Amino acid sequence: MARRELSYYTCVSLAAFLASCDSLTPPPALSKSAGQLQVGDQVPRLSEQDAIGSVQTRVSRHMPDFRALVQHTSPDIVFKDEEATGADRVMTSRLSRRLVRLNRRVQEEWQGVRVRVTEAWDENGEHGTLSAHYEGRAADLTTSDLDPDKLGRLAFLAVEAGFDWVYFEDRTHIHVSVRK
Ligand SMILES: [Ca+2]
Ligand SMILES: [Zn+2]
Predict the structure, then answer these.
(1) Residue 114 Cα, ligand 2 centroid: separation in angstroms?
(2) What is the pTM of this model?
(3) What CATH topology corresponds to 27-177?
(4) How far is the centre of ligand 2, averaged over its atoms, from the C-alpha of 132 (Å)?
(5) For the chain, what are the domain ranges?
(6) pLDDT tens-place string over residues 65-82
(7) Using CA atoms, how far apart are residues 127 and 122, in angstroms rounded to an integer?
């Protein structure tokens, strides 16, 4: 009898252990079957700093770091450029290459639709302290038709396009960023 009780308790505690292990296991970072992110999703599921490295500089036009940035001149991508300074086109070459890749996917996905950049390098300090935008390593994106219903899918395509961190920030845009 004592033996049976013991094995019963072993089973119960083992089951509890397995259940707790299971609940500690994070779900997959991205459900391929869903094919889109939800508002608030971050891929990979890390802090941005852990995913892309820390931001150290608030790059301004007179700094040597500025010369390392590129001007994205592709006519295939839409740049909001509401600042009328061209800053939305300024970014690292790594970010620029990922954008080209994403734009290709977007054009394959939706006839006549392209990527639209609303922010890239920020020289006006409009983002938080040490934002990746200050190093030209982040971009805020929508589709060119401004359709909010496409953002979840756009974020998924951005993950596939190889951005190092993708964040479906809110219903107006997604934020993507890259390592140095
Ligand atoms: Ca802008
Ligand atoms: Zn952003």
Answers:
(1) 18
(2) 0.82
(3) Muramoyl-pentapeptide Carboxypeptidase; domain 2 (3.30.1380)
(4) 8
(5) 27-177
(6) 999 999 999 899 999 999
(7) 8
